[in-house]
Design a protein that fits this description.
Strands 1-2-3 form a three-stranded parallel beta sheet. By secondary structure, it is mainly alpha-helical. The N and C termini lie far apart (about 40 Å). Helices cover about 55% and strands about 10% of the residues. The radius of gyration is 14 Å and the shape is globular. It has a single domain, classed as Rossmann fold.
């Protein structure tokens, strides 16, 4: 995007208390990008390479107040949950 990245747009909306559900349609499949998007409140994360099959499912899930990520990066969600469990165990 020419002026702001998707991450920056979500941050600005959060700062202004704009309540909406955000879905990232992205070419970035790196786990750190996924985690950053989820940390700032994304409800969906769809890879462009799977957009044709994933975007309809993602919109449907997010409309029903659920989360959706592309199956190709499902392991990232498991890694994220495991890190949270480890942090909780150390509290």
């Amino acid at each position: 995007m020419p002026i702001l990245s998707g991450l920056e747009i979500v941050r600005k909306c959060s700062e202004k208390n704009i309540e909406t559900n955000f879905i990232f349609l992205t070419m970035y499949k790196e786990e750190d990008m996924f985690n950053e998007a989820m940390d700032i409140g994304a409800k969906g994360y769809v890879l462009k390479r799977n957009a044709v099959t994933d975007i309809v499912n993602c919109i449907s899930e997010v409309q029903n107040d659920k989360y959706y990520i592309s199956p190709l990066i499902a392991d990232y969600l498991e890694n994220r949950l495991n890190r949270k469990r480890i942090l909780l165990l150390h509290l």
